[in-house]
């Protein structure tokens, strides 16, 4: 946000409902991707902003692309980091991964709550940052919980400080993890039908950029490399993909200067 603002842009980054400093919904289990898209549109309307660049990390990119399908006239361009655009059929394929796959485990009501509930929020965040900074896809054994994949003595990644951990831990201590489990995991297969769109051809024509680390565990999902090489362009005809060889899933934290420069280059090329 600081780099973008210093370059002369207006940077807006709301906490999703149920995350960070936002209010926790009365019924977190009913929160949906559609709610987050509607929240985004409402914020833009309240600020009288007619057109934006959307930048999304991880499932924020999923929200961003649903927003793009609903409001193409508001989109100047879209950048995602860590997770590329994935149409419904690609998301369905994730359900074919083993039962211990972290997304499937966290979709199961009560399983993640019990797993997370053994620790304070700071410890949960610590384990998640360690777990997802590796290149292996997190898959637990039958009688093993996801957070037990991280040894208690495992060190934080070098680019994630104890101060970072304190800040993130305090944020989740306030919000809890109920909404975070509902969106994205338990609403992952939610069917959303944007107006005036062929549901079998969810195409976004605006300029788009996907930045991924070659050490990102998501890059190692079955079929992901083939999809990025030969499948994704049918949905995003104006897509550019940039690979960072040494980067993990936490590209912005690991390489902030590099990430900022790539974002600014894209914004300048597609200024409107």
From TrEMBL:
Give UniProt keywords alphabetically. Hydrolase
Q: Name one GO molecular function term.
A: hydrolase activity
- Superkingdom, taxonomy of origin: Eukaryota
Pfam families assigned to the protein according to its UniProt record, in alphabetical order: Abhydrolase_1
Keyword Repeat part of the UniProt annotation = no
Q: Where is the AB hydrolase-1 domain?
A: 3-251
Q: Does the keyword Hydrolase apply?
A: yes
- Renumbered to this chain, the signal peptide range is none
Q: Which InterPro entries match?
A: AB_hydrolase_1, AB_hydrolase_fold, Epox_hydrolase-like
Family classification? Belongs to the AB hydrolase superfamily. Epoxide hydrolase family.
What is the recorded name of this protein?
AB hydrolase-1 domain-containing protein
